[in-house]
Amino acid sequence: MSIDENIPEGKGPAGIAWRENKMVIVKDYQNSQLTKPWHKQAKIYGWGCSGTFPIQKSGKPYAIVAVYHKDKDAFDSEIIELLNEMTRDISFALDSYDYEIKSRIAAVAFESQEAMIVTDANRNILKVNKAFSEVTGYSSEEVLGKNLSILRSGLHDKDFYENVWQKVSNTDSWTGELWNRRKNGDIYAAQLTITAVKDTGDVVLNYIGSFLDISVRKQAEEQIQRLAYYDSLTGLANRRLFQDRLEQEMKRAVRNKTTLALLLIDLDKFKDVNDSLGHAKGDQLLIETTRRIKALIRDSDTFARLGGDEFTIILPGNDSLININRVVENILKEINKPFDLNDGHVGYISCSIGITQYPNDAKTVDDLLKNADQAMYAVKATGRNGFSFFTKEMQQAVQNKIRITNELREAIGQKQLEIYYQPIIDLATNQLVKAEALIRWNHPKKGLISPAMFIPIAEESGLIIEIGGWVFIEAIKMAQRIQQTSNKLIPISVNKSAIQFNRPIDRNWLEFLDSSGLPRGAIIVEITESSLITDSENVKNQLMLFKELGIEVSIDDFGTGFSALSYLNKFDIDYIKIDQSFIRNINENQSNRALTEAIITMAHKIGIKTIAEGVETEEQHHLLKSFDCDYAQGFLYSKAVTANQFEPLVNHSSYINL
Predict the structure, then answer these.
(1) Which residues contact 158 (CB under 8 A, 6 or more apart)?
(2) Which of 126, 397, 612, 614 has its CA 20 to 30 A from that of 304?
(3) Please, what is the Cα angle at 601 between 597 and 605, to 5 degrees?
């Protein structure tokens, strides 16, 4: 049996009764063409005739009742009417049950927390629930018979309401937000759903509305909107709003044929205030900085905080360098004044300001920001506490940096980097006892490139992590090879930048060192004074780990950074490398001579050995030896050489005869 009219089983009495919603009487079941697919069953079960009657629910077919009789033409008009009446009763019962269930659901829903309202087809109010009265302030008696328009706020025009009801007419419902008015005149936001209730002829009988007062949510959304576009600490425009304002000001400048200036302000040494006095005092300083700068600019200027200690100002319609200079100089002067941070604390900072102009320097938001950033960092590089206008030379320098970074990435992949080794001599025996691993870039077109040209870029780009790891592994291999071929332990020192200390140590290095079979002291890590000064947990933990694994630690270029005397006692340091700036004029310069001797004496008294860098003359050699300096390296002994050139040097019993 089927209702599909495209197959034989669907063309029988049941299919017709369902599709056409009418009874079907078959007087001779076993011979009728309508029942041909079931003749075999009819003979087995003895069906002589049949009556098939549709049961309806909500005016549509819901089920089929099929009645069979053993005799042909056994259904007279009385029986047919009786069966018709039975199916009508069943249909009525189904509709009644369905209506009762829906009524119960509607009753429960009507007493829900949502405000509900029922109107007639003309939108006159027939019924409201308790929640409606709580939201609107109207009692049921006050609104019954009134039109829905009683709730209108006056904030929406005629077209708005026409569009709403047109949507209801087309789709039987509408959901959206609108503003309504309470009985007391207050305006509130409502989330409203309107549903049309129709009869079987598709004629609207009622409209049911359900709504929630979303005023609180709207207020929260406004707060979120504010958080999305304004800095919560200073109340200034944030980066998102700043970029939008900058785009608008650029468009206005085009229309008015004017220019604008963009100032990027970075507070110098703000981190020191934060670290020493705490974040609360740091926040106080930022708020006071905001107040001071605000007092120096116009209401038409956009002042924003991009994040941290970085601010920006848009000066629209300002094509006078004199005016820009005056604003900038006033800002520098104000920021240089002491900051009273209460509780007896005073903060001292300065700022670096980069300036770029539209449309002279750039045509896009991103490019203007990049230009201002480059100009600001130019100030940082020359001592801070000043300002700089963007120049094409700065742009060229950045492009060169990007080019070198890309070429350096290729160099790593194409193995253009090479390690050179510079011998370190024991001044007591004149023998080669250590070496420093120094990286060189053997460019296929440019030849050897100085580390000074690419190491800072490697640090800035993060490539130093990969390069440093490779140098560490190669240094272990060299120490291994020397021990195997000459049966000597020649410790190799490798440089570790402050950038590398910001990352957790690569366990692969340590595992490689452990599996190498080299004794303790085979590898020395050279670090700068500035790395120690940071006093970070990473530095402490890594130095402790080096000591546990037998990796010795040397302070490179000692005396050129911050005073590290307290750190010599705090950390377990094995060597101090005296910077070549002290050694270069040690014979002629009394101060350099005195400082060098003092460093050596001090180091020995706290159990640290010394290495003099940049030794180039025999006079320097003899003087350092007289000061009891332990080791030396420099061109007097050997320049840095390739791995193949270095290994034969190790076998010299006396490296230099002085």
Answers:
(1) none
(2) 397
(3) 170
Q: What are 75-123's pLDDT values in tens digits?
A: 998 998 999 899 988 888 887 777 665 555 456 556 667 898 988 999 9
For residue 5, pLDDT beyond 90: no
Cα–Cα distances in Å, from 251 out to 166, 259, 365?
Answer: 39, 10, 11
How far apart, in whole angstroms, are the C-alpha atoms of residue 276 and residue 286?
A: 15
* Least confident segment among 242-256, 345-359, 412-426, 544-558: 544-558
**Cα separation values, 650 from 270, 435, 646, Å:** 50, 10, 7
Distance set, CA 453 to CA 155, 301, 398, 450, 530 (Å) = 66, 41, 13, 5, 21
Q: What is the pLDDT of residues 611-630, one digit of tens each?
A: 999 999 999 999 999 999 99
Q: Around Cβ 390, how many Cβ atoms within 10 Å?
A: 25
Considering the domain boundaries, does residue 213 fall inside one? Answer: yes
Residues 6+ apart with CB under 8 A from 419: 437, 438, 439, 440, 471, 474, 475, 478, 643
For the ranges 57-71, 129-143, 181-195, 363-377, the lowest mean pLDDT is seen at 57-71
Residue 345: give its domain's CATH number: 3.30.70.270
Number of separate domains in the chain: 4
- Beta strand ranges found along 33-152 (DSSP E): 49-57, 60-69, 115-120, 125-128
Last residue of a domain, one of 152, 187, 218: 218
Note whether 185 and 156 are same-domain residues: yes
